[in-house]
Amino acid sequence: MATKRGSALLLLALGLTFTQCKNEAYQTQSTTDATATAPAAPAEKEYTYETAENDPLNARIYTLDNGLKVYLTDYEDAPRIQTYIAVRAGSKNDPADATGLAHYLEHMVFKGTTELGTADWEKEKAELAKVEQLYEQYRKTTDAAMRKKIYHQIDSVSGVAATYAIANEYDKATTAIGAKGTNAYTWVDQTVYVNDIPSNQLERWLELEADRFREMVPRLFHTELEAVYEEKNRTLDSDGRKVAEVINTELFPTHQYGTQTTIGTIEHLKNPSITAIKNYFNKYYVPNNMAIAMSGDIDFDETIRLIDQYWGGLQQQQVPGFTVAQEQPIQKPIVKEVLGPDAENVSIAYRTPGINTRDALVVQMISNLLYNGSAGLIDLNLNQQQKVLQSYAYDTPMKDYGTFRMTGMPREGQSLDQVRDLLLAQLDMIKKGQFEDELITAVVNNDKINTVQAYEDNQNRADAFVSAFIYDMPWQKYVSRPSEFAQITKQDVMEVANKYFNNNYVLVYKRTGKDPNAQKVEKPTITPVAVNRDAQSEYYKAFLAKEAAPLQPVFIDYSKDLVETKLKQDIPLIYTKNKDNGLFQLYYILDMGTNNDQKLGMAVNYLKYLGTDKYSAEELQKEFYKLGTSFDVFSSGDQVYVSLTGLDENFEQGLNLFESVLANPKPDQQALNDMVAGTLKAREDAKKNKGVILQQAMVNFAKYGKKNPFNTLLSEKELKAVKPQELVSIIKSIPTYEHRVLYYGPRETDALAAVLNESHRTPATLKPVPAEKVYAELDFKEPTVYWADYDMVQAEMLFLSKSVPYTKDIVPVVRLYNEYMGGIVFQDLRESKALAYSTYSFYSPAAKKGRANYLLSYIGAQADKLSEAMAGMQALLTEMPLADANFQNAQASLRNSISTERITKSGILFDYERAKRLGLNYDIRQDVYQSANTMTFDQLKEFQQKYIKAQPQAILVIGSKDKLNFKELEKYGKVKQLSLKELFGY
């Protein structure tokens, strides 16, 4: 799956989880809008809509005359609307000789229209036609010298065309109206466009979207193509992606799910066809193949009327049919190997039926019986008993077929074959029915809880619509799916498991080593193009001039929006009520952590492997899962969180069980031995993870020096010397220290306090928490380049600058700076120069009073482009360019965002916690909102000159030694290689 700004896999939240049931008829209703005009005026159009019985979303599903599907649900958590525009066309619809086309197109849809994004369409049109013809000539040419000559022409003509283009004008428009999360993703069956908009901007957004889906203009094509190259290179650096590609290729040797990837082959990436992309758009981007899905603060009648007004004129047309390739049964295990720098693991994958079959629903049940994070067979028999380092299972339903996969990571000295056998043994237990009947009931109940929780979020609500549409599932069938899920029996599970899970799997050994088949998409020669930051199309000017009814911000009033009271021993209870459903969240928070005692973190981790005087560890997990509750203990450097969440109807039972775990953990020497061995193996695996190396190890080294919070760890000798009773004593001591209780749930304060006073086990006098060990933050006295060697196609780097300690006075200008520079960096380094697929610069305020703020700037690019990318980033940080249009946009976005932000539910509690850590007693967003309109670019420039320009930097680089240009790196400071031993401390 690929996105406009990132290509990480976007998991289809809940839509792939609750999407199967009997095909029942819809209820059909209608609504006629009243009119206050004279009787002679024409009646407003009547819109019919479909609903579903027992629908938790109370959704209405409309179908416009042109076939456009519209899914609407009203959920007024904030004056915002989550929107998805879904197209039933993904990478499986790509032509076989032009894979990656759907994904290319996704990028192009953000480039504007014949009116938006252009300063002179007629002149630009002529140049774009030349570019299109040159690409057709280029892809048919095989002679290397001639191809190079043609690409030079493409680069030259594209530069001319760019002088008439206005880069990023669509993004500017969405930013100006306060949209958030503007993005898109392409996967096998779909392409989906994402926006979270203020509710008062609905009409402007609908007009803007209707215009961009009416026509597609492939402007700035060759620089965006370079971004796609970079996206491809990122996938080639991902061992997980390589494993997934092998699995799909072997499971689907005939179907497009396996014969072509979403991002496309290197050969096809190098030979794109703008003509083919246009044809694809014209075929599939038609209203009867699209849906608008919306959840948020909406008025049904007004919304459908506006959608029809702006989208009803789009013309429907026949959509090409898709013939599903029929895969032949796999007769014996297919064994493959993937090599790469990451830690080793083994995966077993099976082909399963498409999402609209009942068997797919049973496969989902099997997935949960094996792995649900608490009480599945893999959870209890492998993870909790520490027979493997880590393992999991999950199903991925798609329209035509699905996949089921189990993955395990070995312990020290354990072979991948041993892990394979353990995983297969758990699946064999499912096939034989060797699991408790009540586990099915528990899975069903927890599924219901997960559904309730998910539907508290507009993203999940709207995404449910997307799944129903993409998989051609009537809404009643979608809504009824949980009830059918609840009817699955043990016999169903056994029959389906034995039907699909035999010796017909793909087995992939992911081993650590150099990939002999490593590839990369070579960098073409690209001349930076003009971005015309201050130019504005006539369309854009008119768009901005349209008025929208203003929305007023709502800030948290801590004295009114939460209740503070005392429990026994003067324990603070901070409470806010859940008025929506019967779920609760309970937290005990201590202001002490691993900086105080490394064994505290070890004890917290040990707890999940322990039983009590009444229950074994396995029985405990089963009991919590049956109650629809879960407990967790988490430690950071300076805090410990102990949490209990779940069904309020089982609050007392869950709380008493929870308290017994803290009060009576039973020491287990074998569990400790296994945990220590697992910890040591996990430490070694972390040294093979580039994200951990750069984002954690190197950042901490730069901030604090050789001895820092990241690498201050118990040594192997110290770990092995720890006794079970030591850790049990630490666990028991947690409630004996001063702490506070946070609660979000449906109970009234007095009733809640009574239950907690009775069940929460504390001594008569609480001990004060010990003083925190504070790591001194280093001053960056001279520019230094730290680098770490890692076998990868790309290179990644961070510019890190230490700034002043946190002060609330600069928060407004910081928020505006980040809003402004986000667009500038993206425009310059990606849109204009095509130097990086992923890049950003962000001034990060401290999370705690007294700590320093930091500027963090990131680039991920081909190693041979890193020097150019670094120079580009440094130039932006040194001399922040003035772009009036971008600045006005940043102001409007900041104002619109804050006026429509609503911090609600348990978010109020944690916002209060954050404020206290920063020494604040009010919602800091008030200061930002009051300043947003009056701040000037001169103030922004002053901030940049004072806190960013010429500040000493630590530059952190990770990449392959034989690909990095060290002479270029030396221009930025003294170059020092950091070994993994220095970074990790072991």
TrEMBL record:
Record's keyword terms, sorted: Coiled coil, Hydrolase, Metal-binding, Metalloprotease, Protease, Signal, Zinc
**Cofactors that this protein relies on:** Zn(2+)
Matching InterPro entries: Metalloenz_LuxS/M16, Pept_M16_N, Pept_M16_Zn_BS, Peptidase_M16, Peptidase_M16_C
Q: Domain of life of the organism in this record? A: Bacteria
Residues forming coiled coils: 121-148
The answer to keyword Glycosyltransferase applying to this record is: no
> Transit peptide: present as a keyword of the record?
no
Give the residue range of the signal peptide: 1-21
Q: Domain Peptidase M16 C-terminal spans what residues?
A: 275-445
Q: Which Gene3D superfamilies match?
A: Metalloenzyme, LuxS/M16 peptidase-like
Where the record annotates domain Peptidase M16 N-terminal, the positions are 78-115, 605-697
In the record, the note on similarity to other proteins reads: Belongs to the peptidase M16 family.
Protein name (record):
Insulinase family protein
| Source species | Pontibacter saemangeumensis
